[in-house]
Amino acid sequence: MRLARLPARCAFVLAGSAFAASALAAPAVDLDQVVVTASRTAQTQDATLAAVTVIDRAQIERLQPSSLPELLRGTPGASLANNGGPGKATSLFLRGSESDHVLVLIDGVKIGSATSGGASLQDIPVEQIERVEIVRGPFSSLYGSEAIGGVIQIFTRRPQGAFVPSFSASIGSYATHRGTAGVAGKSERGWYSINAAHEDTDGINACRGKPSPGGAGCFTNSPDRDGYRSDSLTLQGGYRFNEQWDAEARLFRAENHNQYDGSQNNEADGVQQVAGAKLRYRPSDRVSLSASAGRSEDLSDTYKNGKYSSTFETRRQLGSVQGDIGLGSGLLTLGFDWQRDRIDSNTRYARDARILRGAFGQWQQSFGAHALQASLRRDDDSQFGGETTGSLLWGWNLSEALRLTASYGTAFKAPTFNELYYPGYGNAALAPETSRSVEIGLRGTHGERRQHVWSLNAYESDIDDLIAFDASIGLPGNVDRARIRGLEAVFDTRLADWDLRASATWLDPRNDSRSASRDKLLPRRARQSARIDADRRFAVANGAWSFGASVYAAGDRYDDLANTRRLAGYALTDLRLGYVFNEAWSVQLAANNVFDRRYETAAFYNQPGRNYLLTLRYRPSR
Question: Three-state SS string across 7-34, please?
């Protein structure tokens, strides 16, 4: 289905929604009170032993981010590098690990490119997102390859009532236009959700690069605006047949056209598509069995001045079975994952497919003031052979208000096809990366209504055979060892009618190899970062006003392994204003980078200056 025909197709789909409401009849899973990513089972956020950040739809609409990377900016442990503004390639480094050390899921289906290794976060429209769970730390013992720095799971929009239509329209700086439309509903047995989104912007000049000699930046001088366009659609639904059986299915597709600055290519058409289905069987309150299948696609065609240049396509098929069995006061989880990656490209790779299989087990137990989560996994890669990973997390409730946590975990990451086989760049001698991490944390919950929440987490990760570009050989190489130490602090409270949230990260990501770059900082990670969000709502006779501000600050970083190209630190201030007319209609105004700060997160790549976005939104509460 081509989303260029989206309006007509959506009109047909929405017209049939009344029928769908009666045909689909199990309530959607209520994600507001649980976290599922930290253990692959449902837990309350207070009960999780891992360091977790949850961003729900109410927070998304309050913060008014223009993109998913902007939403994630400033979350504990996260550092981002963007190549030139809206829609441009964005890398996320979690706890100082590499950008491809973060496993990304959409509704439980793993996404990302098997060639570049990363997930295209910039191509996932924030208007399609209901909730984001960010779990920090090594979780290969539950998810396999890539989960060295952590796991990010994105949940698409969910129904909030029996029949809830929604609509929004936005205009803003850089000739930005956005629109969304959707309908969702749930009843005693079924639920469904249909959402479409469109975004179009002229963007900014992506790169201030210079042509050779010097090879600075993007190897070209093209001082024009580099636009971005995206159309997306989400379809999902579920049905509860009886007390034992239920099923759900989902489809997410986003098509985009991106302009950028480059000497080889300067345009790209891309597709992100995720499809998945899940069947659950609960023979008793103590036993739950599930089987799921999914497929994700990351497709890209590149062009130079409108002339076709290359194709890079990843098609990933996934399957999983999982059983959760209550034994005494504990919960045993057993599962098996299967994954097949295949790439199609006009660039010839020595190998273009591989299969990964993984079997895992987990035990969760609470005894008195103590809680335990232990997991073990064995992965088999058709290319690299077997890898065993494990983790142990422990929590101790020192009092009703304080909990002490500690953990140890191992993880691994298989090299990407580009790192191994890309002609003129790949290094077939690369070995998988492996890691060991330790962490200790303290969290507190205080106040009569438990409105004051804080946490401190300190950690150290040692990564062996870290893959990074080695300028001495002009190829990616295995850095012998990297050592990353960090400290994260979070404080969340309600004070004098203000909702306040603050987070800070201190990071020391060091190259610990025996090379000339020993003791140098790993590139593009800010060593210090902090964010403060403050929001307040004011009720008036005919509605309610809301006002908010966010300040994000990041320290300096280096753009290369040798630490010769320094990127200065910076601070950004965003303001937001909203007015709610009634339970359905609201208007919002966001002013970002209000002091027009010039900064770079990747050398030579520009970032947006002062900009605005005005949004009219319709969404009944029920």
Answer: HHHHHHHHHCHHHHHHHCCCCCCCHHHC
Query: In this structure, what token pair is assigned to residue 455?
Result: 């946490």
Residue with tokens 């989104």: 197
Instruction: List alpha helices for 277-423, DSSP H.
Output: 417-421
Q: Residue 260 in contact with residue 302, Cβ under 8 Å?
A: no
Which one, of 406, 319, 331, lies nearest residue 362 by Cα? Answer: 331
CA distance 529 to 31: 29
Contacts of 87 (CB under 8 A, 6+ apart): 67, 122, 123, 201, 203, 228, 230, 256, 258
pLDDT of residue 429: 82
CA-wise closest residue to 445 among 435, 437, 455, 436: 455
> What pLDDT digit, counting tens, does each position of 218-246 carry?
878 888 999 999 999 999 999 999 999 99
Numbers of helices and strands, H then E, in the chain: 6, 31
Alpha carbon distances (Å) from 609 to 89, 238, 531: 18, 43, 19
Burial class (CB in 10 A: 0-12, 13-18, 19+), 44: exposed
3-state DSSP assignment of residue 464:
strand
- Integer Cα distance of 412 and 361 in angstroms: 17
What span, in angstroms and rounded, lies between the C-alpha atoms of 353 and 375? 29
The pLDDT, as a whole number, for residue 223 is 87
The reported pTM is: 0.92
CA 167 distance to own-chain centroid: 24
Give the largest Cα separation in the chain, rounded: 70
**What is the structure's pLDDT at 10?**
39
Per-residue confidence (pLDDT) for residue 517, from 0 to 100: 76
d(CA 125, CA 79): 20
Closest to 312 measured CA to CA, from 122, 146, 86, 114: 114
β-strand partners of 435: 411, 463
Give the per-residue pLDDT at 561.
Answer: 82
Residues of the chain predicted below pLDDT 70: 1-33, 211-217, 469-472, 622
**Hey, which residues does 207 pair with through a beta bridge?**
605
Q: Is the Cβ–Cβ distance between 295 and 276 less than 8 Å?
A: yes
* Confidence (pLDDT) at 478: 80
Enter the tokens of residue 585: 């209609």
* Rounded (5°) CA angle 271-302-208: 110
